[in-house]
Amino acid sequence: MAKILVIDDEDQLRVLLKKMLMHGGHQVSIAEDGVEGIKIFHEIQPDLIITDIIMPNKDGIEVIVELLKSNPDLPIIAISGGRRAITANFNLDSAEMLGVKGILQKPFTHEQLLELIEKVLS
After folding, report:
1. Strands across the sheet with 102-106, in order?
2. What global pTM score does this model have?
3. Can you give the residue ranges of every domain in the chain?
């Protein structure tokens, strides 16, 4: 399976995603913001990044731009949503234009996430 880095500032979602992905056989690392995410990316060189868009310190758009600049084929899935649906749609559209391989609006199901991961990694 894949080595996946999850970057999200929501503690509960980070832990839930880690459990879901590990249950699917993936090796998972987590980061609580974009600054930590970039640092961990360089340490572990994951096969896939799943990043939230709206985060403190360095948001998901900044993470996407920085990582794709030096790794243009890196598979990235952008996630966003919750109570900020209009903003989330705009941010996910922006991420897609930047070159992420997939987008998911929160809330999403376990099945939707696993399907997208399979599609992005194939």
Report:
1. 27-31, 3-7, 48-52, 76-81, 102-106
2. 0.93
3. 3-121
Cα 89 to the chain's mean position, in Å?
Answer: 15
- Identify whether the C-beta of residue 33 lies closer than 8 Å to the C-beta of residue 55: yes
Run of H or E residues at 56: none
Residues 6+ apart with CB under 8 A from 54: 9, 60, 80, 84, 87, 88, 91
**How many angstroms separate the CA atoms of 91 and 89, rounded?**
5
Mean pLDDT in consecutive groups of 10 residues from the start of the chain, 122 residues: 96 95 95 98 98 93 96 96 62 91 92 95 93
CA distances from 9 to 12, 16, 106 (A): 9, 13, 14
Helix (H, G, I), strand (E, B) or coil at 101: coil
For 46, the token pair is 């994951």
Average per-residue pLDDT for the chain: 92
Query: What is the CATH T-level fold of the domain 3-121, as seen in this structure?
Result: Rossmann fold (3.40.50)
B/e letters for 84-111, b = 16+ CB within 10 Å, e = fewer, are eeeebeebbebbeeeebbbbbbbeeeee
